[in-house]
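=== Structure Prediction Worksheet ===
Name of assembly: unnamed complex
Input type: mixed (protein and possibly other molecules)
Chain count: two
Listed entries:
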Amino acid sequence: GESVGLHLPTLSVQEGDNSIINCAYSNSASDYFIWYKQESGKGPQFIIDIRSNMDKRQGQRVTVLLNKTVKHLSLQIAATQPGDSAVYFCAENEDSSYKLIFGSGTRLLVRP
Amino acid sequence: GAVVSQHPSRVICKSGTSVKIECRSLDFQATTMFWYRQFPKQSLMLMATSNEGSKATYEQGVEKDKFLINHASLTLSTLTVTSAHPEDSSFYICRWGGAGNEQFFGPGTRLTVL
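=== Predicted Assembly ===
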């Protein structure tokens, strides 16, 4: 069952700075990874994805890095804005069945 | 783009009652659907996977007799929380199988059990 009282780690950054959010995934067989943003009371919002045959992918103001050797993902947000304040989750696709397993999440707070 | 709806968006019920949550796809059909729940300040936890026309597969620790899933058609799936108790209070989110794009997630249902 879920852990009672578990709190999300928080990353606090100054507006305009770059943010780096990290995630460790568990399954070495996972071949597809996604970063999501979630605002309070809403469902996950897709940010960017990456397949295991890549180690870097860039979007608009965001970059995802994948290190398969240590099973680590990171999300870099350039020039962080107040609207970026939210909880960020990584998710891994365990197999071709589209089953997504979510990581523990990080809360991003942007200071004006 | 594809849109998934959930109903109700919020529900408050008394302990011991059952609550049904509907998840509908509005402009596409999918055979696979996932149900997640999310407790405050925690991540989304996968509860079960269902395929249209067959029984759902539940994750370890999730009681199949308590969380009844009916994947009645390619556009409708329901999750019924039976004999709900305060510890079932959570945010329930459906997701249709396919690409991980946001359009395939439902907006979520906030369940509060008194």
